[in-house]
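Hello again, I could really use a second opinion on something today. I've been staring at a protein lately and its backbone has me curious. Can you walk me through what the tokens say about the fold? Take your time with it, there's no hurry, and the full record follows here:
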Amino acid sequence: MSDDDLQAIIEFRRVGSVLKVIAVDPATGIEVSMVGDPRYSQQELGRLAARKLRYVLDKKAGKA
């Protein structure tokens, strides 16, 4: 499964001078977070958060 196939809930929160991005897998409830530069688009930051979520899900499944 690629990052494009991953269904995730993405949330953005401004924290001071950075943007906190939270990605949640609705099937398992597994959540990851990261901080990013707010100059990047939400689409790009969301893609990176989904990529991190995919890594964590694969690692928990023993694929990484």
Observations:
- The mean pLDDT is 91.
- DSSP finds one helix and three strands in the chain.
- Helices lie at 42-60.
